[in-house]
Design goal:
The chain has 225 residues and is mainly α. It has two domains: 63 residues, Winged helix-like DNA-binding domain superfamily/Winged helix DNA-binding domain (Arc Repressor Mutant, subunit A), CATH 1.10.10.10; 138 residues, GntR ligand-binding domain-like (Four Helix Bundle (Hemerythrin (Met), subunit A), Up-down Bundle), CATH 1.20.120. The protein is built from nine helices and three strands, in the order αβααββαααααα. A three-stranded antiparallel beta sheet has the order 1-3-2. The model has no long low-confidence stretch (mean pLDDT 90).
């Protein structure tokens, strides 16, 4: 693995967390491919760390669903399956219904101003957008909902699946590059539902919103499990 493939590590946080963040970003950004063997020795040399932080990071990434640890064979980047998509979609739907029902009565002016700033970025996109940028804007919008839902456990669950949602959204945007057509309009519709301050309207809005991405992912030729 060449040195220019891996970004340099900052030093202000625990090394294991830093390595986890770097590898997670590389997986979600498609720098590593599904099924690719992640060799501890090569990763340690590339990141200029010992194998201890690499093992710690790979264990964390397995918990998040990004990596599969196979006995006596090592770590491999997880392959997206129909089961993965269905499980993450249903879990996301459950927690985000709760999140929007709480956030819609708590956001007020500041929260909606933050949403509007992201919407303006979405609206200003007038050329072909790469999947990574589409995913970044999408998640920035949804992060605001979780930030204002005032529910620490829901936020922790979201953080635990956010990386997998990133992978799914990237696959969705890479295979169905329609962000220019639906990115702004669909998120604006959800924002308007939240602005009603009605938990049921917010839940109906999020159900409709995330169903589109799920339906597109189901059309991909993925293994069952």
């Amino acid at each position: 693995m060449s040195d220019d493939v891996v970004p340099s590590l900052p030093s202000q946080r625990a090394l294991g967390d830093l390595v986890t963040d770097v590898l997670r970003e590389m997986i979600t950004g498609a720098r590593f491919q599904p099924g690719q063997h992640l060799k501890e020795t090569e990763l340690a040399e590339a990141l200029k760390v010992s194998r201890g932080p690499i093992r710690q990071a790979l264990a964390r990434l397995e918990e998040e669903g990004h990596v599969e640890l196979r006995r006596h064979r090592g770590a491999f980047v997880s392959t997206l399956t129909k089961t993965d998509v269905e499980e993450v979609h249903t879990l996301r739907g459950a927690i985000e219904r709760l999140a929007v029902s709480r956030a819609c009565t708590r956001m007020q002016g500041r929260g909606f101003a933050e949403m509007d700033a992201v919407l303006e970025q979405m609206k200003s996109v007038d050329t072909k957008i790469v999947p990574e940028d589409a995913v970044r804007l999408d998640l920035q919008f949804h992060d605001i909902i979780y930030a204002y839902c005032d529910h620490a456990r829901v936020q922790r669950v979201w953080e635990s699946i956010r990386g997998q949602v990133t992978v799914f959204l990237r696959a969705r945007n890479a295979s169905f590059p329609d962000f220019l057509d639906v990115g702004y309009s669909e998120h604006k519709e959800l924002r308007d539902a939240l602005a009603l301050g009605d938990p049921q309207a917010a839940q109906d809005g999020i159900d409709k919103h995330i169903l589109g991405a799920y339906e597109r992912l189901k059309r991909l030729n993925l293994p069952d499990r």
